Amino acid sequence: MSMLSCRVLCLLAIVLCCVGVAHAAVPPGALQYVKEAQEKAKETLKLKAECENAANAAREAADKAQQFVVATESGVETIAADPDKVEKRKSEGHELIDKAMKAAAEARKVANRTTDSKIETENKASLARLSAGETDPEPEEIVEVEKAAEHAESAVRAAGQSADDAEGAAKRVEDVLKKLDAAVVAAAEKKEKQVESQQQTQEKQKEKQKQHYRSTVTINIHGDNLDALLNGAANNSGMALNDGSSSPALLRVPFLLLLLLSVLGCMTVC
């Protein structure tokens, strides 16, 4: 064999070794275990996709709930002053709470299923690796199965975080609705105080008018007017007595005095 032929054979051997290193073949005895691991990995990847969708839905529900919280807190007093806005806002809030909690529950449910499938995938990958024996590098089929399990684990963590965010946002919506209820009560109390203040002002004005009227009437029946009335009554009484008659005029004098005293007494009491 010539020197050139030897060199060609050596190069060919090196190339074949490199190909073997790049992709180790699965031993025949491990093929069944590898196949089972691959099938489980496919199932896990499907659940991973569902897990990602559920995480996105929970994240979207959390974002909408948080936007509601910010908008309500910034205008809580304005909303509280309008009963229609209050009812609408509370209805929207309860709907967002319901959606966020359902999205969080779904994300956790799918995450749990994905976790179970991931664990089974890892177990089957381990069994396939043991069946293949010590190979360097590890067969690509088994490596792909292990990567599927790792990707599923990442999706599970993301779903759990999104579920936490959705539940937290739902709790904040509940809190802001409580603030809205408190603002409604405060607005009602403020309005009631304003009405009471107006009523008190009106009552004071009426009382002043009454006092003014009483003062005017009192002035008219005091002083010279009262003396004139009393003197007139006395003169009438004296005239009636001097006449010595028992006419009705004589009987009316005490009655007029009594009536005058009654009026004065009533005004004093008032």
TrEMBL record:
Keywords: Signal
Keyword Signal assigned: yes
Span of the signal peptide: 1-24
Spans annotated as Disordered: 109-141, 193-213
Top-rank taxon, per record: Eukaryota
Skewed-composition ranges (Basic and acidic residues): 109-123
Protein name, per record: Surface protein TolT
